[in-house]
Task: inverse folding
């Protein structure tokens, strides 16, 4: 019987090469770009938020920078408008004088003293020891009464001394562990927030000698010649010079300031301070020429220099208090300006210096 034929050996055949169609490539997304000015006008950004977003994405950070600049411009505009309103109102109050002026000073003192004790309380995080709240409230009330007492009694030395004694006794007899920092901050608050601002009442209402050195008459609507006393002219001149000094220092400091003035306030520069001094003295001399008080050009120049030194020192003292408290502004009472202390810090020491200069340095009040 014949053997079966061997099975054919398996052969490894390569599968046929299949040419499959490649998947379709996705098309790039269609991007629409708006041909708009960079950045678009503010009124368009307000009405069409998507338009503003498209401009920001197309221009990178240019839109954000423009928005920041627009916000700064709005803040500056608000600051200027509020400052003009305050200046006009303050001018009317100064011209009115009497109890109107004393009441306005008393209201400003009350608000400023409350901000001061809040700043003192903010120093507790850095190791400070603020006085109890009831002590700070009593001090604020006493400070608010000082301008009124000055108007009717002419002095407040006894008031300050007696108030400081009462505050010291209340702090020493309190429960717990009294601290010396509580006593110093409270007594300084009486001096800084109440005693010094009361000199503006002494300056405005305590110098009743006529200031007119000319023969022409002032309008009856402005009070007539009898109303224009040394106190009124000296107060208007001091306030106007402080405003001129602050404005000149701010503008020239931003434009030309290079040399820091002091570490207490890094934004203040020597160039700005010199511009503030020039603006203050120039304003004093011009007003003395118009109002014919004081009659001496040298006295007017010295008065302007003294006003500038008082305003600068007051500004630096308030900056020192805010730096220890770790805050930028003393409050938020005035839109665009911060707190009341941020607005009147240049006036705290100036009233006492002006009153002392007129009473001591000028013979017969410079008339």
Result:
């Amino acid at each position: 019987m014949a053997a079966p034929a061997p099975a054919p050996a398996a052969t490894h055949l390569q599968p046929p090469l299949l040419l499959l169609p490649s998947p379709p490539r996705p098309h790039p997304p269609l991007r629409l770009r708006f041909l708009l000015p960079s950045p678009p006008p503010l009124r368009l950004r307000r009405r069409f938020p998507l338009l503003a977003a498209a401009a920001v994405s197309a221009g990178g950070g240019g839109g954000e920078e423009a928005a920041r600049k627009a916000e700064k411009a709005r803040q500056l505009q608000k600051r200027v408008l509020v400052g003009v309103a305050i200046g006009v109102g303050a001018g009317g109050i100064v011209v009115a004088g009497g109890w109107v002026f004393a009441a306005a000073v008393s209201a400003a003192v009350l608000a400023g003293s409350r901000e001061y004790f809040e700043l003192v309380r903010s120093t507790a995080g850095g190791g400070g020891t603020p006085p109890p709240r009831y002590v700070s409230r009593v001090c604020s009330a006493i400070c608010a009464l000082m301008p009124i007492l000055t108007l009717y009694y002419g002095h407040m030395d006894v008031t300050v001394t007696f108030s400081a004694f009462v505050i010291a006794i209340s702090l020493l007899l309190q429960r717990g562990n009294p601290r010396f920092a509580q006593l110093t901050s409270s007594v300084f608050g009486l001096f800084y927030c109440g005693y010094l601002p009361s000199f503006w009442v002494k300056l405005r209402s305590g110098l009743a000698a006529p200031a007119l050195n000319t023969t022409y008459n002032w309008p009856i609507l402005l009070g007539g010649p009898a109303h224009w006393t040394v106190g009124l002219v000296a107060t208007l001149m001091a306030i106007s010079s402080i405003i001129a000094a602050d404005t000149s220092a701010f503008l020239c400091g931003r434009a030309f300031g290079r040399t820091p003035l002091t570490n207490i306030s890094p934004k203040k520069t020597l160039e700005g301070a010199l511009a503030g001094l020039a603006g203050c003295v120039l304003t004093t001399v011009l007003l003395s020429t118009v109002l014919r008080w004081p009659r001496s050009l040298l006295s007017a120049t010295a008065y302007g220099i003294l006003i500038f030194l008082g305003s600068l020192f007051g500004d630096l003292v308030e900056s020192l208090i805010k730096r220890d408290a770790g805050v930028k502004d003393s409050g938020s009472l005035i839109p665009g300006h911060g707190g009341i202390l941020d607005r009147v810090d240049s006036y705290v020491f100036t009233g006492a210096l002006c009153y002392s200069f007129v009473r001591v340095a000028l013979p017969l009040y410079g008339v």
Notes: The first helix runs from residue 42 to 47. The chain is about 65% helix and 0% strand. The radius of gyration is 35 Å. The chain has a mean pLDDT of 81.
